[in-house]
Amino acid sequence: MKCFPFNYGEKKDDPKNFLSVSGRSNMSTTYVDGEMKRSGSESNSQDVSDNSTDSFRRNAFPSMSQRPSNLRVFSVSELKSATKNFSRSVMLGEGGFGCVYKGLIKKSGDDPSTKIEVAVKQLGKRGIQGHREWVTEVNVLGIVEHPNLVKLVGYCAEDDERGIQRLLVYEYMPKTSVEHHLSPRSESPLPWIMRLKIAQDAARGLTYLHEQMDFQIIFRDFKSSNILLDDEWNAKLSDFGLARLGPCDGLTHVSTAVVGTMGYAAPEYVQTGRLTSKSDVWSYGVFLYELITGRRPIDRNRPKGEQVLLEWIRPYLSDGRKFQIILDPRLERKHLFKSAHRLAMVATRCLVRNPKNRPNMSEVLEMLNQIMDSYVVNANPHNILESSHHDTEINNKKRLMMDTKPADCTNWFRMWRPKVIRAC
Predict the structure, then answer these.
(1) Which end of the chain is more exposed for a tag (fewer CB within 10 A), N or C?
(2) Residues annotated in the binding site for ATP, as ranges?
(3) Where are the beta strands (DSSP E) in 205-273?
(4) Looking at the record's lineage, which domain of life comes first (predicted)?
(5) Of 183, 186, 171, 225, which is closest to residue 389 (Cα–Cα)?
């Protein structure tokens, strides 16, 4: 499922909103500034609220790009060597940004002779928009660090015979994306306990971005293909090219161009361009139903009545007997039903039509912790973990949980109505 802009001809992202990379060696700040100036005409179509909001935000975070960063600066020759000259034999994937290659680089620090595996993302020729996303990734992942965010090792911005080369170097995530493991093509579908663990990890990552720093970051493109798994099956959020700073104190939202992925974008954001952290909460709710059903949010290969996930599941939510119909048929059903139904209730709360009534991600995480604890106690976790295809350890800690009364699933009809969205 590809990411694309929804274009209504009303708003454009102000290129000045994207923080320039400064204070780092081997970076052409002149190039960055020049690119931003050349794209300045894009801001002419913004409305007044957008301009005033972004001006306030720039004043509120004047030193964000000067925060300490441990990013390494690579040369093009280093990354060519690491990836066998960007050989297709080491290509991991290809997306809207460009191609991603597996590589080996020398480890920095005390033992530079040791090599580590990395993923090298090479920017395709997408012009200014691609450059903005590259700059955003460097700025966001260069200053934030969390176990459930993919680590950015370094970057490259260098001229060669082909022009400016912009690359990002990440930690290598050998278990690929959650989307891959939920796909019918996957030979080893994720067991239920692992799906709960992934839901927890993703919620921790979003909670950190939304609530645990002195500024807020809105992911804006949360989806299963942007959740990667390391060698111990820990889930980490990746691809921050569309991320935005959240609104400052006293402001309710950030006005932006409407971008994202069909099937995940919150309806109020698609309709108005007003972005809040609750837009991510909606996307997270869609993801929970992906975990429950094993289906993509939009799948044109399915029968007409089953192509839109949220529409297909709606008739089965209010009846416990019918609810089993939407469960992923590849899942082992023993001890599963109660846990899956409770997870669906959390998803439903995330998908309330009015964004103000959706929970914060910290509240979602508390509910998920309670679901996991209950499932582990009731399902003999020792046998489950032995029979699954991973070695992840689950920390079963007692927590004081909030009362999570299930939402009324019969109100789903009023919570979400899909609209036809034209993408340019």
Answers:
(1) C
(2) 121
(3) 217-218, 227-229, 235-237, 244-245, 254-255, 258-260
(4) Eukaryota
(5) 186
Mean pLDDT of all residues belonging to the chain? 76
Show Cβ contacts of residue 213 under 8 Å, excluding neighbours closer than 6 positions: 144
Q: Are 358 and 203 in contact (CB under 8 A)?
A: no
Question: Which single residue is written with the structure tokens 């400052």?
Answer: 248
Measured CA to CA, the distance from residue 257 to residue 269 in angstroms comes to 9
**Amino acid identity of 242?**
L
Spatial CA neighbour of 410 closest among 319, 303, 279, 293: 319
The residues, ordered by sequence, that sit 6+ positions from 278 with a Cβ below 8 Å of its Cβ are 266, 355, 356, 358
How many domains does the chain fold into?
Answer: 2
Identity at 41, one-letter amino acid code: S
Are residues 193 and 97 part of one domain? no
Q: Residues 75-128: pLDDT tens digits?
A: 998 999 999 999 999 999 887 678 899 999 988 765 667 889 999 998 876 555
User: CA dist 55 to 62, 68, 251, 340, 382, Å?
Assistant: 11, 24, 12, 44, 54
* Residue 376 within any structural domain of the chain: yes
Question: Which of the following is catalytic: 50, 201, 221, 328?
Answer: 221
CATH number of the domain residue 374 falls in = 1.10.510.10
pLDDT tens, position by position, 210-259? 999 988 999 999 999 999 999 999 999 998 888 888 887 777 788 788 88
Phi, psi of 14 (to 5 degrees): -70, 120
177 vs 238: CA distance, rounded Å = 10
> Over pLDDT 90: what percentage of the chain?
48
Residue 321: the pLDDT is 84
Binding site per annotation, positions: 121
To the query of whether residue 221 is one of the catalytic residues in this protein, the response is yes
